[in-house]
């Protein structure tokens, strides 16, 4: 998809060049210039970088090669003195582990919950039994209640709820392996996204974590943009 968006740049490129590299859950764009000095090379690179920002906007989360998505999320939370908590079912702590990869995560993360069983979802997050009985644990409504419930339980600004069928097994005609719902609640404003991932159990879980991090970042971008506009 990214390659299609920049196909015209790739076709006419000479110096500098743009090359997309697909990574798990993200795409890297490498802009390379040939010049007689580093300063001159940076001048060649600048307009291409500006064009990429024009096309992709806030979807670009960093231009630093050693900065990860979880780095960006933790730094955004820390900068605005926001806290985060997660309720994980199919990912079983993988999302929280990505946050803890970042030095300083303790400034924004106090606690998270692994609520694998339905009983745990009700006990710790306040997910309604009626919801679980009618639409099931893997549903938009459950992801929403998980995100809102963990934020309330932890007293955090941001709550994340992840529930899905990583497979193999547990499928129904309506719900195939790879189906994941992710809810992100920021100061009681909640959005839920539905994903159908491909691949084995581990890849489904890894992709769910990548999408959850991206959703948190997008939600924070919107949150802080709105706050800045009100000033």
SSE topology string: HHEEHHEHEHHHEEEH
Individual helix count: 9
Sheet with the most strands, sense and barrel status = 5 strands, mixed
Q: Give me the Rg, rounded.
A: 20 Å
Strand content: 15-25%
What low-confidence regions span 5 or more consecutive residues with pLDDT below 50? none
Structural class: alpha/beta
Biggest sheet: strand arrangement:
4-3-5-6-7
Proportion of helical residues: 40-55%
**Intertermini distance:** 37 Å
Mean pLDDT over the residues = 95
Gross geometry: globular
Number of strands: 7
Description of the structure:
With 231 residues, this protein is α/β, with parallel strands linked by helices. It is 46% helix and 19% strand. It has helices at 2-5, 7-12, 38-56, 69-79, 94-100, 118-125, 129-134, 140-154, 201-230; strands at residues 17-23, 26-32, 84-88, 113-114, 158-164, 179-186, 189-196. The mean pLDDT is 95.
Descriptive tags:
231 residues, 5-stranded mixed beta sheet
Quick overview of this protein structure:
The protein is an alpha/beta fold. It has nine helices and seven strands.
Topology record:
Elements: H1 2-5, H2 7-12, E1 17-23, E2 26-32, H3 38-56, H4 69-79, E3 84-88, H5 94-100, E4 113-114, H6 118-125, H7 129-134, H8 140-154, E5 158-164, E6 179-186, E7 189-196, H9 201-230
Parallel strand pairs: 3-4, 3-5
Antiparallel strand pairs: 1-2, 5-6, 6-7
Helix pairs in contact: 4-9
């Amino acid at each position: 998809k990214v390659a299609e968006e920049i196909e015209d740049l790739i076709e006419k490129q000479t110096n500098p060049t743009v090359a997309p590299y697909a990574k798990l859950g993200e795409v890297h764009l490498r802009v390379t210039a040939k010049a007689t000095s580093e300063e001159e090379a940076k001048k060649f690179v600048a307009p291409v970088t500006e064009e990429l920002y024009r096309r992709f906007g806030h979807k670009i989360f960093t231009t630093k090669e050693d900065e990860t998505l979880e780095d960006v999320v933790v730094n955004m939370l820390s900068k605005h003195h926001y806290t985060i908590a997660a309720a994980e079912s199919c990912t079983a702590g993988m999302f929280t582990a990505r946050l803890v990869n970042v030095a300083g995560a303790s400034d924004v993360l106090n606690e998270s919950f692994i609520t694998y069983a339905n009983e745990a979802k009700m006990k710790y997050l306040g997910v309604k039994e009626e919801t679980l009985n009618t639409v099931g644990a893997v549903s938009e409504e459950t992801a929403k209640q998980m995100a809102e419930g963990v934020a309330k339980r932890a007293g955090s600004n941001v709550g994340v709820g992840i529930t899905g069928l990583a497979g193999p097994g547990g499928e129904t005609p309506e719900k195939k392996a790879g189906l994941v719902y992710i809810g992100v609640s920021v100061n009681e404003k909640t959005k839920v996204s539905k994903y159908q991932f491909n691949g084995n159990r581990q890849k489904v879980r890894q992709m769910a974590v990548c999408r959850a991090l991206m959703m948190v970042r997008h939600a924070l971008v919107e949150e802080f943009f709105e706050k800045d506009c009100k000033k």
